[in-house]
Amino acid sequence: MVEQVLTIMQFGLAALIILAMIRAFTGPTAADRLVAINFIVGQVILFILVSSPLHDLGLYIDVALVFVLGAFIASIGVLKLLEEGKL
What we know:
flat, Helix Hairpins, mainly alpha
């Protein structure tokens, strides 16, 4: 039962990722695109965390944490680039 719920959650997250990708490609401004990409990153992290109990691998949690740190550093870099024009 739990596996079925987690699988349904994965399909829902995949649908949200696809919708956010459409928003990222059609966003009128760079800020809109950045928000959409940050949303996609959040959904991918949730997808990884939902996959962890399905495969009985706690290593996925460590991967998600590293992914969060990398995404945070990247978004700070992009914001600095948008504001100042240089890194």
